[in-house]
Design goal:
Layout: H1 2-25, E1 34-36, E2 43-47, E3 64-68, E4 74-75, E5 88-92, E6 99-100, E7 111-113, E8 135-137, H2 148-152, E9 159-161, H3 179-182, H4 203-216, E10 219-220, E11 223-224, E12 226-234, E13 241-248, E14 265-269, H5 280-283, E15 292-294, E16 317-319, E17 336-337
Bound molecules: 2-acetamido-2-deoxy-beta-D-glucopyranose (6 copies).
One 2-acetamido-2-deoxy-beta-D-glucopyranose is lined by residues 90, 92, 113, 115, 135, 137, 161.
Length: 338
């Protein structure tokens, strides 16, 4: 019995030692300091921040530095100038770090891992001095935007990781669709938008809806409509995304319907124009799927043509306030307004 207890006790001790080693190795040790790995003499692990007394040490030439659990809200990367042989730097698991106090210095660093920080914004020249940078991990931060310049100007960059951020999915982010830059994005399919309108929706899909909408947004005699992606929702079976869009061509002095409108237009606003002919609703297939049309304050006299049209069976709102309609028959459709 005693022997068994002693045996169990020694297993317990071994287990503790094993856990302790494991924890140290992954930069989670409780002590707040830097230490060289004993098995890998070129790797410096720092918990809680970089320790300045390593700066002038002539015996320490780490090629890898891992810094974690930094409590402060900003981080100064200048110290890497003291380690010209450094090729991999990780500053990780420090959600309080929201920014860098200055750009990274000129350095031949190849891998920069900045995962699980609280980065909110990166200045466009933050990484400009890292001319040899090949891999950049910015996953699990709070970034809303990433200036295209950051990716474009790192000529050696091959891999960038950006998932789990708060991407605002603003038109500025459309560089993710650029084939040259996009192919460096290793986790593009896992990137999701963080703003409420598109929250949780895949960045690539949202950006391509926005791009298509902008390309197809009508311009008529140098006058531009305003097209916006208001919302994006999953289909009932969650197998594809359905955009909800508004195309606003109000008060542009138009005397006819735009010849073409973006695919997937949900709401079309044509208020305050000089339109009199509504036949495009019957003849132009682009208009078949629009569910809300506002034609208030135009010069429409007659809507008899619409009788029996396909479109009339599908629409949600057809608003004709302040026109000059002389109705022959009273419509019994609730949403036909004039
Ligand atoms: C490193 O050395 C320089 C000059 O030798 C000195 O000015 C600096 O204070 C030293 N830094 C540290 C952290 O000891
Ligand atoms: C973040 O900062 C707060 C105080 O401002 C501190 O209590 C907390 O431990 C810090 N978190 C980390 C992970 O360092
Ligand atoms: C960055 O570090 C984290 C945590 O150690 C790791 O999971 C991730 O794979 C690293 N990223 C890259 C690109 O190596
Ligand atoms: C277009 O509409 C959006 C949303 O309604 C608005 O934020 C934006 O300022 C408008 N742009 C123009 C040029 O009117
Ligand atoms: C219109 O929406 C469908 C899915 O609802 C999508 O497959 C298609 O690409 C969209 N068209 C454009 C031009 O965005
Ligand atoms: C549509 O555009 C007009 C003129 O620019 C503007 O007054 C109106 O508020 C816009 N409507 C919507 C719903 O964005």
């Amino acid at each position: 019995m005693k022997a068994l207890l002693i045996h169990l006790f020694s297993i317990w001790i071994l287990l503790i030692q094993f856990l302790h080693l494991g924890i140290c190795g992954s930069c989670n040790s409780l002590s707040k300091r830097c230490e060289m790995r004993t098995d890998k003499l070129d790797k410096l692990l720092c918990n809680g921040g970089f320790q300045k007394n390593y700066l002038n040490s002539t015996s320490v030439h780490p090629r890898i530095i891992v810094i974690c659990q930094v409590m402060s809200s900003s981080f100064d990367p200048a110290f890497i100038s003291n380690f010209p042989q450094l090729y991999r730097l990780s500053v990780i698991n420090s959600p309080n770090i929201s920014k860098f106090t200055q750009p990274f210095p000129n350095h031949r660093l190849q891998v920069l891992n900045l995962t699980r920080l609280g980065l909110v914004h990166l200045h466009h020249n933050t990484f400009e001095g890292l001319i040899n940078l090949r891999t950049l991990d910015l996953s699990h931060n709070k970034l809303k935007q990433l200036d295209r310049h950051i990716v474009e100007h790192l000529s050696q960059l091959q891999q960038i990781f950006l998932r789990s951020n708060n991407w605002d999915c603003d038109p500025h982010l459309k560089w993710v669709l650029n084939p040259l830059l996009g192919k460096k994005l290793m986790d593009a399919n896992q990137m999701t938008c963080g703003v409420s309108k598109y929250k949780g929706k895949p960045v690539l899909a949202v950006m391509s809806f926005i791009k298509n909408l902008r390309n197809e947004c009508p311009k008529i005699d140098s006058k531009s409509c305003n097209c916006s992606l208001d919302l994006i929702v999953w289909s009932p079976n969650k197998d594809y995304l359905v955009p909800v869009t508004t195309v606003n061509c109000s008060r542009l002095d138009l005397d006819h319907f735009p010849p073409s409108i973006p695919s997937n237009t949900t709401t079309l606003l044509l208020t305050g124009n000089k339109i009199s002919d509504i036949s495009p609703l019957l003849t132009n297939p682009k208009y078949l799927d629009v569910s809300d049309i506002y034609l208030d304050e135009n010069q429409i006299f007659n809507i008899d043509k619409l009788e029996g049209a396909d479109w009339l069976t599908k629409f949600r709102v057809f608003s004709l306030k302040s026109n000059k309609i002389t109705a022959k028959k009273q419509s019994n459709r609730k949403n036909l307004l004039w």
